[in-house]
Amino acid sequence: MAVTHARIRTCLLPSIGAGEADRPFEPSEDNAIISGGFPSPDLFLFIYCSWKKGNKKCNLRILRFPLLRKDTGMDGGAPIMQLLEHYVRLYSSLKRNPFRGDMQEPTIVTVPSIAASLYCTERNAKLLIKAMRQHGWIAWSPGRGRGNHSHLALLADPDELLLKQAVGMLGEGRIQETVELLNTEWLSERGREQLHQALRQSFGYLRTNGKSAPYNHLLRFPSYRQPGLFDPALTTRRTELHFVRQLFNTLVEYDSERDLFLPGLAHHWETDRKAQCWRFYLQKHVRFHNEAPCTVYDVLYSLERLRDPSVMSPYRLLYREVQQVKLIDEYSIDIKLSSGQWHLPALLGAAAASIVPREQPAGWSRVPTGTGPFRLSHRDERLLVLEANPFYFRRAANVDRIEMWYLPEVYEQQFNRSNEIGQEGGGINFHHYGAAMQDPEPWELTVSTDRGCKYVLLNRARKGVLEQPELRNIVNKVIRECDAGGILGGNRGELANGFIRELSAPASASVPLAKGTSDLQVPSDGAAESAERYSADPLLNSHSGGIMASQPSLKLVTYAGAGHERDAAWLQQALSSYGIALSIRLVAYEALAEPDVVAQADLLLLEQPVDADAEWTMRAILGSGHSPVRSCLPPERLLELDRRLAELPNEPSRDARLQRLVQLERELLDDQMVILWYRWRQSASFPPELRGVSISSLGWVDYKQLWFAHDGMDENDNQPAATEEVDEKLY
């Protein structure tokens, strides 16, 4: 910044404090350090100015450095990182000399020149030289007497020193300090890549001996975004839903392998013949993470809270048939409904119905307490830590600690080879557990296809250009005939033919067109061909009155992350081949629940996470209050949907209810209210001694199932005749 000489003399110099580094401010040189001072015992500030003689103003730089001084006990024993900073600065300063040869060859220097390079006094420069010499980084031969020059040789490579220090910090779990090195100017490109490699090896599944850390089994990984709130009543996003499942329990829990509901915080339940009154018996001796007992009053509070309009839960409509939650005794409750609700276990097994404490301090939604297998022990702007809950009422988790580091700079370099961040649920949540180069044994790999999907909503509630069936046909065909994996790359996989994978027919690009319209062809690359190639098509020919004559424009709304940026950009280019202008607006994820945001969009590009229970997921998609699907339906279509949804709870058969939900979904697809796109390919790589690895319905590894086995038995040991799995699954 530009300031006057008087301003420096009267304001800046007194503000930093007097010290021996202060020198008179005389603007007689073109460049000089004009002042320095000690605002604190361990900090040195200096002011560096550049100006031309005669000018009234100069360019000012104020730099901040930790200071080495004898009275702070640092001579010869300076904090290593501070000393490294000075060494790298000295190394860089001498390397810039065009006449400098081998850095390890002695060169003539003076103490004043070193002090200038390190922006310190000559006294502090001598202290730094002494400390560097003791570490073996330099060879120093001081000049004795007038006219005898000092000689300095720089023996250590800065990259090697910094990397060695970084490895030590990583071993102590000081991840953030190591990451900060990546943002410095000290590292060369080679050194920066080596540091990234060291960081990669510090993430993953780690096992310690218990002496260097209070935990034995650790899972550590980076994330491209900070999670939001962990309030079960408000959570809708995939990552947050995953953590809610680790932190909380529900009254009942759905087992997808056996397709039935199992006890959770309720060990037994029963209902009347009409499914209008249900009684639940609660498990005893359950505690929250803060050791407070989980009582029937907490259950009452949690269920009432879901229906409280002031909470603004997006799931409130799904629980509107609950008329009363009545206390029977300290371990049992009755739930009375306005009509038969055979699907009530699905409602009570949802993450939204997790039991929370009725006493919640300020900020509880960010750092909540639950009864789940893990407790949230730490959360800041960089780090989120889960630790195994020692009070868990079931078998405790075998992984002691989970660390999720918010490190977008590391995440991007490590997993974003295709310049795309945030394929949430697309597998790269797990690829960072990859084997290090020196691992002698190959790692295991488990793969799956996401149960949910990426999709595009057509806002039919907004009367406009989407009322033209020909335009909807083009949007539909462009998306459905896109080979997402081949064109867009990354972890994009198969074409989706239903919101939930196992409830959909085999994937096919063939979707019925709007009535009264003809077919058209979409190029395999979706955008590479020009509009002239399709001029013969009746839908595009301006002479036949097709839509190209009107030059339609569409507005697409989506949120950053989950691959949306690349998907939206491709769709924009593909539609431009048909003369359709697509504008893209990125909003915060939470803004998608705002009616004004949705009302301004023609298209919404979204992702649908799927919980273990398909019935709950389908009801949430079609019936929850903040459902994007519902917000884009015309009023008359929404009334018809609600009428048919209201008939479902009276059906005792779960299979029959699911069939009718799928039928409602199919009608929305056939009428081009929704266009399904693709599913993520998911994978988890892990060392062979890690067991219990599986990818959950939300696309994450279920932490409570993980455990470590020892390496294979010695050949001389008695081998068991067979391996028998006797472990109880942690439901």
Automatic annotation (TrEMBL):
The keyword Protein biosynthesis does not apply. Signal peptide: none annotated. InterPro entries: SBP_5, SBP_5_dom, SgrR_HTH_N. GO terms for molecular function: DNA binding; peptide transmembrane transporter activity. Residues 263-590 form the Solute-binding protein family domain. Keywords: DNA-binding. GO terms for biological process: peptide transport. Residues 83-197 form the Transcriptional regulator SgrR N-terminal HTH domain. The keyword DNA-binding applies. Pfam families: SBP_bac_5 (PF00496), SgrR_N (PF12793). This is ABC transporter substrate-binding protein. It comes from Paenibacillus foliorum.
